[in-house]
């Protein structure tokens, strides 16, 4: 039911002799669904923030320059943006993270690239580093951003704003509730 749009994003690294193929990979631990404005917006998409125009922003992912990166997605328009540690752009395609009865998502406070238990990874960079989903308050909203543990910073660059970097931020983590406990909680 849940299929990944693309399992790998590959690039030739010409700097290396023999032109080795370098691939980043999409993480398959969580459920991500292909989406765009021609699909119904999934009810169980994961809310991440609110942008400065007052639109809710949902957790998505896309790839750019052979790295898989978190994306910010507006439900109303399907408009999606992303950033890495330097640039911010519009995402031409993306997947949305969805929860289910036993798998839910939460934001926890974190700092300095600390490796939180059960943090959600979108996939890897071309250097094979896992990329995590963070968020912070800035520019009149709460923005989903890109967390590289090695850089110890959450990077946020929404299209119209300058690059922001946070050493204190929130990280998206998953919570698995066993089915019998889920039933008791209802
Ligand atoms: C971010 O994108 C720029 C432009 O493609 C690239 O030069 C830079 O290496 C990227 N950063 C990371 C951490 O991949
Ligand atoms: C929720 O998604 C996870 C991961 O794909 C899966 O293992 C689990 O069975 C799903 N739970 C339900 C209730 O569908």
Automatic annotation (TrEMBL):
The record's section on SMART domains has: DM9
Sorted UniProt keywords: Signal
Q: Which InterPro entries does the UniProt record give?
A: DM9_repeat
Q: Which domain of life is it from?
A: Eukaryota
Signal peptide (UniProt feature, chain positions): 1-23
The protein's matches in PANTHER family, at most eight in alphabetical order, are given as:
AGAP009604-PA (PTHR31649), IP19903P-RELATED (PTHR31649:SF10)
Descriptive protein name = Uncharacterized protein
Source organism (scientific name): Drosophila mojavensis
């Amino acid at each position: 039911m849940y299929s990944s749009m693309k399992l790998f994003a590959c690039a030739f690294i010409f700097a290396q002799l023999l032109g080795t193929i370098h691939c980043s990979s999409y993480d398959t631990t969580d459920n991500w669904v292909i989406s765009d404005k021609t699909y119904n917006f999934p009810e169980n998409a994961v809310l991440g923030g609110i942008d400065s125009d007052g639109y809710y922003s949902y957790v998505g992912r896309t790839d750019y320059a052979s790295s898989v990166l978190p994306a910010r997605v507006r439900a109303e328009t399907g408009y999606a943006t992303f950033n890495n540690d330097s640039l911010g752009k519009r995402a031409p395609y993306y997947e949305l993270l969805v929860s289910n009865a036993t798998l839910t998502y939460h934001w926890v406070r974190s700092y300095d690239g600390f490796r939180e238990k059960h943090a959600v990874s979108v996939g890897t960079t071309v250097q094979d580093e896992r990329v995590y989903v963070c968020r912070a308050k800035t520019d009149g909203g709460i923005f989903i951003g890109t967390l590289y543990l090695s850089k110890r910073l959450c990077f946020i660059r929404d299209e119209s704003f300058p690059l922001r970097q946070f050493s204190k931020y929130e990280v998206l983590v998953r919570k698995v509730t066993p089915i019998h406990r889920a039933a008791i909680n209802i």
